[in-house]
Amino acid sequence: MMKELKSVMTASISEVLETMFYMPLEFDEYGDVDRLGMLDIPDLRLCRLEFSGKFTGYFIMMIPEDILVSMASDFMGEDRHDITREHCDGIIKETLNMVAGHMFSTMDDKSEIRLSIPEIFEDSKMIDTIKSSIPEGLVIAESIEGYIFCMICLND
Question: Rounded distance, CA 104 to CA 47, Å?
Fold first, then answer.
């Protein structure tokens, strides 16, 4: 099940980021989060989105703020210097929402899956939790500007 979810999530990430933000991506199936140093980036933004229905769990998307600034600037047609933290948080929330929606509609357009409201995590507790147990549902995408991580975790 997780292999199928990862495959569909990878395709959804690619579709959403290439369509909405003109961001071509390459995916690293064997990437090592520790080697990449992603969880140690000081301006890493984390967003969580819960889902329920046919199965229940949550997504976490992690994007460095400098990449979010570029995404927001391109999407909004604003100068990078005018982009605020709120703009960046809005971009990551909407990106995760679009990825999840695209993913679930691609998998099964007849089942009802309910998505929660995306939430930003400001504290490091979530990063510590992720460091202690990287789920098998992790997808690592590399853009020209750096790495983007997205993971899906299913509840038991």
Answer: 18
For the entire predicted model, the pTM comes to 0.90
From first to last of its 156 residues, the chain has per-residue pLDDT tens of 888 899 999 999 999 999 999 999 999 876 666 667 777 777 889 999 999 998 899 999 999 999 999 999 999 999 999 999 999 999 999 999 999 999 999 987 777 899 999 999 876 666 666 666 666 788 999 999 999 999 999 987
CATH architecture of 2-154: 3-Layer(aba) Sandwich (3.40)
